[in-house]
Amino acid sequence: MSAWVVPGYTETRELGAGGSGRVALATHDATGVPVAVKYLSERLRSDETFVRGFRSEARLLGTLDTPHVVGLYEYVEAPQGAAIVMELVDGVALRALLAREGSTGPEAALAVLKGSLLGLAAAHRAGVVHRDYKPENVLVAADGSSKLVDFGIAAGRDSRPGIAGTPAYMAPEQWNGAPASPAADVYAATATFFECLTGHKPFAGHNFAELALQHLEAPVPDGQAPEPLRPLIRRGLAKAPHERPENADAFVSELESVATAAYGPDWEERGRGRLAALAALLPLLFPSSGGTAQGTTALATTTLTGPPPRLRRRFPRGLPAGAAALLLALLLALAARAGGEEADGDVAAQAFATTHTSPGPSASPTSTPPPTPTSTPTPTTEEPPTPSDTPEASPTYGTTTEPVPTTTDPTPPPTTTPATTPPTTPPTTPPTTAPTRPPVSVTDVSVTSLRQTGPTAAEATIEITTDGTGPVTLLVEWFTGDEKGAPGTPDGSETLRREGAGRYTLTLPHVVGGAGCYWGVRATTDPAAANGGSLQQIFIRRCVIT
């Protein structure tokens, strides 16, 4: 399989890979600045809906010039692939901190909420609703600052993009397919805030029906939060959108007032110090650590990171952010036109569509709502659906091997109208061929962990070691039974594909349907591993040894 690389960059290593593509750590050759490059997968490049959403995510990032959202450096599209080049945040996902600590403490929870809310506020001012705010999409840097990432399913305010998001954080109106609104982002942010305070989600339903009912009707569990912060929980998790703060800016104002009254004027400094200390306990999850790439089992969502000096301030060949969308449209139109002329077909096939961002006196862009898609996707629960419906994991970005469930609803975020006319620079020509990774041998596949996470929920961690970076297919089979040492009755399976690294760690959740007291998981690979495969069993909590 080909591995196209954006010209002008040298890849250091892969940070994550999955169904929607991969994310690589790279260096900009002209400046030496480290960046994160998000590549759209080969499989999705033929799906215009995904490609359109990928372009729109890049276009939106180019308009949000704020330190609280991962920044765009350039977007490149060519026959060999499509990629978003972003700033690199050397930090960890909030999900990783919660997985290790359980909760962050009130001041740290307030600090991380404020930082990511400021990122949401920039999007809301641009007329965009994120729609998938959750701990996986909030990054904590080494200095304790926080940043919002992954606008893959963002939509224009008041548009009707259908039901999408991560169920544990979806507002009541999202379950009904109501128009996208900033108040829904406020709800998701409050649910994340609640999790930071208590160590668990506000509602713990194990399936769509339970979660929907709880989000729609269950009382707000504000009594589990520290008393001074309960008003924020009640406001942010209110069932009716009009009873919540109308947008992230309004919520930040309320947050600052409550936090100062409860914890004094220095609360934010102490909170960021606490976050920095928590992040320091996870050094191997930082992109700068040089750790191995990790995969997950999610549904086409991407966690991205990034904070050194922004390349947009260092790319002399760049354009003002407001001109990026226009240049992209112009180059795509030229390529399409040339592609329709038989004599110039080969030339058109090599044309790049690329955008850059750089400093400059660009005027504030005018946003317009994106179009509504023709299909309505269904949200996913914390446990993925059956394997036949679940694409491989999306790229993670040096954070955690926990799954990052969401749905994809690639509604294009708002387009921008530039104030100046961009230069008509001719498109770049990429290499005519892309390298192909050679076949590999799998030296080992192991189920390193299997645990019960709920009455009918399990989680397994699987490690694969190879002698190269070529493609490897993993088959994971689940079993239930009443006999120790025997696999028992099949209880589902899934197949995942990985490439680009010599070692992979995957943490896979599973909803157990069988009634046996022993749960088991078996992992095998193609090509076959030298050790053949790995099987592990656990005796579950509801059963009693007699």
CATH secondary-structure class of the largest domain? Mainly Alpha
Structural class, by secondary structure, is alpha+beta
User: Low-confidence runs (pLDDT<50, min 5 residues)?
Assistant: 291-435
Strand content of the residues, in percent?
15-25%
**Order of neighbouring strands in the sheet with most strands:** 12-4-5-3-2-1-11-19-16-15
The total number of structural domains is: 3
Helix content: 10-25%
DSSP, total strands: 21
Question: Could you please say which CATH topology of the largest domain applies here?
Answer: Transferase(Phosphotransferase), domain 1
Amino-to-carboxy terminus distance: 53 Å
| Shape field | globular
Main β-sheet description: 10 strands, mixed
**At the fourth CATH level, what is the homologous superfamily of the largest domain?**
Transferase(Phosphotransferase) domain 1
Q: Evaluate the radius of gyration.
A: 23 Å
Number of helices: 11
Corresponding CATH architecture of the largest domain: Orthogonal Bundle
Mean pLDDT: 73
Description of the molecule:
The protein is built from eleven helices and 21 strands. It is α+β, with helices and mostly antiparallel strands and 546 residues long. The protein has three domains: 9-89 and 305-375 and 387-416, 2-Layer Sandwich (Phosphorylase Kinase, domain 1), CATH 3.30.200; 92-294, Orthogonal Bundle (Transferase(Phosphotransferase), domain 1); 442-539, Immunoglobulin-like, CATH 2.60.40.10. It has a ten-stranded mixed β-sheet. A hairpin with a 4-residue loop joins strand 8 (138-141) and strand 9. Helix 3 packs antiparallel against helix 5 and helix 3 packs antiparallel against helix 8 (248-263).
